[in-house]
Batch of 2 targets.
Target 1
Amino acid sequence: MSEIIKINKDRIEEYLSKGKRFDGRKLDDLRDIVVETGISKNAEGSARVKIGKTEVLVGIKMDIATPYPDSPDKGNLMVTAELIPLSSSRFENGPPRINAIELGRVIDRGIRESKFIETEKLCIEEGEKVWNVFIDIYSINDDGNLLDAAGIGAIIALKNAKIPKYDKEKEKVLYGNLSDEKIPLSNEIPIPLTIYKIGGQLIVDPNKDEEDICETRITTSGFNGTIFSMQKGEGGSLKLEQMGEVLDLAKKVREKIFLKIKDYL
Amino acid sequence: MEKEFSRPDGRSPTDMRKIKAKVGIIPNADGSALFSFGDTIAIAAVYGPRKMHPQHQQNPEKGTLRCDYKMISFSVEDRIRPGPNRRSSEISKVTDWALEPVLLLDRYPNSVIDVYINIIQANASTRCAGINAAALALAHAGIPMKNLVSSVSIGKLDKNLVVDVSKEEEDWEEGEGASDIPMSFTSNGELTHIQLDGRIDNEKLQEGIKMAKEACEKIYEVQKKALKDFAKKE
């Protein structure tokens, strides 16, 4: 931990113990969320999500593939996250590192476990041809909480995606020629939310300074009280009663996120 | 009888698509900018000058400009597999060469100026949009520059020269087909980058270079305005 981060840590923790944050928010306040959809004409669906100064782009691409042997009548889902060096001095080129891999997998599990995508409706010919759905996430500016920004971007991009037309005879996807058909989605939306523990206090939506000193974090995806996926990240530990607080807080704040983005869902 | 030539989107031969330039779009970066030609959108971020790593790449004589051009996976119709490829490596290098002449790199020994360019939506002429965004981002980062750099593509569709090639034009098949000639100029009119794919004679090429220079003068005005608008806002 660098000297500056250490000094910050003491001040931030002192503030949090009084229920305050540097930017004037309460511990359970989110920053403003700004959403824009259809940001790429060549993607089947896309979204830009800004949470405060954090920004991500999420795009949906589809193609035809052979199904996996254990799910011959279901489409496939693939989530990839790239933390590109354009978005922070801390990110470098090269094969994805653990933070990018984890980000992609956490978002993947929320969407997969919620059965948000009705993959059985993405089958063209059982055992032969199904749709692949790629969800690609790019960080554009990392000022903390990429996890939630990415998760929100993923569900909104899926929601506005349209399946491209498919020429069955030529076995060719006609890109740029979107059908009116949307990706079949269920009503159970995996709304993401990460709770961070700093100086023993629980907060949501940290900026980078706060995220840097977090002891542990718990990401959940859920809807209306149902949780679909969970991941604890970083070291640190939580007492059982604090875990209870985490879940209560997650439920409450997830509702706030839903209200902020429901026009796009 | 020859059919009269017209561009697929109805532009006149010297018309560019709608240009947009904006500076200061990525708060984390030391400098950043967006530049678009119609549906082609490039963003660029500058980090540095900072110490060059790995150390063996440090140059005690002068600093290094390290441009990195990439297309994001959903910027085109057929998804691009994330990660470097031969095309993006070459364009990154060409972008270095287009911008280096205006920089005073000998002021930054052992350092690197990283310029990350990402194409977020592609409809041809992406390297030109990337160079325009990169030049703006370098200026925004306050890196001393002798001049700005502006870039545009010239196409030859059959026998007709056009400015700012679109995807549809790139795929032109009639007559002699399409030639694609991306070029970059400093704001005092020196050519820092030219590439060519296709077939063209000297005379026509000269004509094309002149068209590119004139278009780059217009682009320069838009870039200058973006920087001034940003300065006003601050």
Target 2
Amino acid sequence: MTTTYKPAEMMTVAAARALKNTDVTFVGIGAPSAASNLARLTHAPEITLIYESGTLATKPTVLPLSIGDGELCDTALTTVSVPEMFRYWLQGGRITVGFLGGAQIDKYANLNTTVVGPYDKPKVRLPGGGGAPEIATSCGEIFIIMSQGKRGFVEKLDFVTSLGHGEGGDHRQRLGVKTKGPTKLITDLCIMEPDPKTKEMTVVSIHPGVTREQIQENTGWTVKFADKVTETPAPTELELKVLRELNERTARAHGEAA
Amino acid sequence: MSRLMSLAEAVEANVRDGDTVAMEGFTHLIPHAAGHEIIRQGKKRLTLIRMTPDLIYDQMIGMGCADKLVFSWGGNPGVGSLHRVRDAIENGWPNKLAIEEHSHSAMANAYASGASGLPFAVFRGYIGTDLPKVNPNIKSVTCPYTGEVLATVPSHRPDVAVIHALRADREGNVLLEGILGVQKEAVLAARRSIVTVEEVVDDFGPRNLNAVILPSWTVGSIAVVPGGAFPSYAQGYYKRFNAFYKEWDGIARERDTFLAWMKENVLNKRPEDFAEHVRNLRVAAE
């Protein structure tokens, strides 16, 4: 039996599946938060979720609107100060997976959340780096979740806010970075992983009903496909049910019609 | 020693034109009432430091209080842009705004090193990013033991730190609980401080042996402003008013709707009105 679902739901489900029960995950607001909590409410009940506001091992029943909603603190194992969060926990190497998104990404999964256009005369001024510049280099590996489109998937970033694979190859190592960097890029069309040698993000799995042409049309560089590309399994009924209930609870809690 | 005073007196006594002011609160305990009082007193040319300049700095910058912003993430969390901050950066309205942009790690470390009495903060950061190209204050140091090159930024040493806390006791000790942000570090790094609190109690009573307390001798002025964090929240007192964060997007988008809102809700109001906001929130929740 097939259930209909939206591309954004496929993206969240695919991202949730990438997380393991044993992961310690640094979670951002929005899609990463939905994916991380979906993982916790389905196949990874013991996953440790950390938000940069200092909440360790939090288990929110609704998704937070901000990174420091009371819900995160109320349901956390403990809450530490923000300097402690960034020094002991992030810089200290206690986090296995960092989840990032951005306004722009390039083929080496470098991210821009700072500015579109020149820095001094911005076309669009974005929020800025926040925790991302150090999350990108201090977490064991990075998952990126982003809707795919030509505006966001660009040949060259206007500004590098956080390091992915730099200029490719062994660039991270040459910069002295010991962590893996982006190992998965999950979009509403496909899943990409870095080529083992060049580190260019390469399509390894395509979501059901999506074509290679569609992926190319929504990407600002010439897309590479792995030798063996699989089809992403569609969301299961359970995954969709849990995700939709989570979104409904969240909408109610934030005072919106679901 | 009595540090208790009205919020108006506390701002008059501590905030001067041209000061460097850090108003902290990481989503939780944002000192909105103090921000409004600084606007009412027409303070000018401030350098405003804050990790996450959200609505509080959108309001202060839109009302012309600042000529520089030091920050690491500027947005309306979960909603979108800060229209007033963007208008100041992109169009110089109501005046030009210089920016010094960092990462959260850098800002948190700069507060901690400021509180520690050190001239700069050292951490592993900014690797492979363009931020050092646009912020000359981001430099590096080579570790004398391992040879590793580490990032440095100058310590934050604000003239004034402004925070909102849950309670003070009669002696002027201040208690923080919940999401702590960088408030303790900001107060300890600053020359002067203003702490607004939900209430003053005779005694904190039974508490965790490791409760986060700023002792009275580290705190400057204390003003009792119930609801003073609204529309942010105070753990155990009232919840974050998320609907207002969404509403702000429409209010702040245009200059005239912003100015009309500020006149009605800030310039013509007093700190005591914050208690009313929170009362309305409680009634709505029942």
